[in-house]
Amino acid sequence: MSSQFYGLNVAYTGLNAYMASINTTANNISNVQTKGYSKQVVELESECATRAFDRYGNVGAGVSAKQVSQLRDLYYDTKYWNNQSYLGYYSTKEYYMLQIENYYTDDATTPGFSSVFASMFNSLDAVKSNAGSTSVRNQFVSDASKLCSYFNNNAVRLELLQSTVNDEVKTTVDNINSIAQKVALLNKQINTIEQNGGQANELRDHRALLVDELSQIISIEAKETPVTNSNYPDMFTGATTYTIKVNGQTLVDTYEYNTLKCVTRNNKYNQSDVDGLYDVVWSDTDAKFDVWGKNQRGSLRGLFEIRDGNDLQNVHGHVQDVTSNTITITNPNITKITDMNLPSTGTVMVNNTYYNYSSFEVEMDENENIVSYTFKFDVGFQDSMKNKLMGQDLYVGSSVDYKGIPYYMNQMNMFLRSFARVTNDLHKTGIDMNGDDGAAFFVSDDIYKNREGDFDEYYLEGTTQSDLAKIPTGTTKITFTDGSDTYYRLTASNVKVASAIQAHPEKLATTKKRYDADGNVINDGVDSATLVKDWLKLEKDVKVFRDGGANTFLQCIYADVTVDTQECTTFTNNFTNIQKTIQNQRESVSGVDEDDEALDLVKFQNAYNLSSKVISVLSEMYDQLILRTGV
Fold it and tell me: Do residue 190 and residue 296 come from a single domain?
């Protein structure tokens, strides 16, 4: 038979259990607005029954609070992390695409390409009517310079944006490392507490918040596994292993973590790239972090696509010949000088291995189509290496299937080269007010680097080695891709109207060159504008860019940028809505609902009061037993 006072202990366990439940409910209510907090519950279980040596055999021993655990669902967590990586990927691209879109805005409040371009040809039309007026010529030259300034300014803004994105890559990598370090530290704290029988619920919430943040930066796989006793596999030690993997590589392994670092590229991948772009590698092995992995998304990849996106338009071809220090490719994808976007010194990739070239040259056919590129390297190739390179595909820099900053820089370069070439070719067929032959109208002011001293400006086309010899001693020369055609050097960053024409508008050729019977040039007078009539056709009647007239440039570019921006905005909104849905599902399991907690308070209060009532009843029974039976 059980003790007469056994019921007091049973009621006492109820008081303890429901007091713990009330305290836990109070904690939930206090954290109802705490970000990342998961609802906690007291797990109650009946105590082991006590053997009563009587007919009924066993007597219940009451209730015990086994542990205070948090409510979370790994399934919803995993769904949330996967969605976060896509949300971070598209929202990052949307943010920067909106800026690029703004650079090409052309409306009443923000005049852009169409306004400047139309103004230039309106001024040219005025020259047709009054070619002998210096002021009219000055106005046209000024408007042409404004067109160059428009491209110069856009190039500067894109370069600054690329630098900004590059800096954010560094900041993002530092954030990844910081999160990995914090998660590893939390893992140790959690195991220390839980191995001693406690529950580190708040620390687990903190860790889950960090993983949520990390999942928006890179795609991850997080896994927690209980640790068992090596001698008794069914016995759990209370500790767990917690790993986070990225592309199959371990970022966090319980108490240990690996870090990433940014390394500066030695060479550019695209002609108009800014200096100092970062690549991301693993700190311990220097192996490249695979930001382009098939399943890799997140804001970091979005940054790389904006910064490096060239729409797969980087030069590539088939390796046809390899010598001790050169590689020649044939069947290249880019066959026009005006379309080239590779840097004069850069990096090529063959068989996933990068090689730095010091210069290159091209071979063209009779139609000025490039048939081969030959890259020169300072480091020689061994015979065994030659065999590995032969027959492979070679890529200059990296191929990024997205229209990012390099793409828009190259589109501007392509337009300017084509437009400058047709303009210059036409201008050279005429004569100026002095009867002299027309020279190039649009030129580059960046043909030579590290210039020292003053020297005459060299025009783009027709520059020869003898011209280079005239450069003052100490000037560093840039190797030309092809001496007979250097429009490759003209970019949106350096295009300008020839200085001689800016300073002396009478050098503007407006008359077609004609000859008399003796072969002498006929001067039709300063008011003649026979050349201008053909020049005006370059506005829209001559194919210059994407099989359209020059006036369609903005239409083409704006179509590209708006389509990509709208796509990013659409997907950002979609994944934001999915995020809210998944978050609601998470909250249905782990969230704190004020109404539910209020009901729990009433429920646990009633249970506590009933346990108290049991003690009160037993007290009366013991009073009868002790005081009235004379025991």
Answer: yes
Q: Are 601 and 565 found together in one domain? A: no
Contact 341, 271 (CB under 8 A): yes
3-state secondary structure of 356: strand
Contact 208, 214 (CB under 8 A): no
Q: Which residues contact 362 (CB under 8 A, 6 or more apart)?
A: 337, 370, 372, 373, 374, 481, 482
Residues 103 and 17 placed together within one structural domain of the fold? no
Domain count, the chain: 2
Burial of 107 (0-12, 13-18, 19+ CB in 10 A): exposed
| Nearest in space to 360 (alpha carbons), one of 463, 229, 488 | 488
Phi/psi of residue 462, nearest 5 degrees: 95, 5
Predicted TM-score of the model (pTM): 0.88
Tell whether 122 and 104 lie within a shared domain: yes
- CB of 170 closer than 8 Å to CB of 278: yes
Structural domain containing residue 51: 1-71+591-631
**Pairing mode, if any, of strands 50-51 and 58-59?**
antiparallel
23-72 pLDDT, tens digit per residue, is 999 999 999 999 999 999 999 998 887 776 666 667 778 898 888 999 99
Indicate if 143 and 45 belong to the same structural domain: no
Residue 29: inside a domain: yes
Q: Cα-flanking dihedrals φ and ψ of residue 606, to 5°?
A: -60, -40
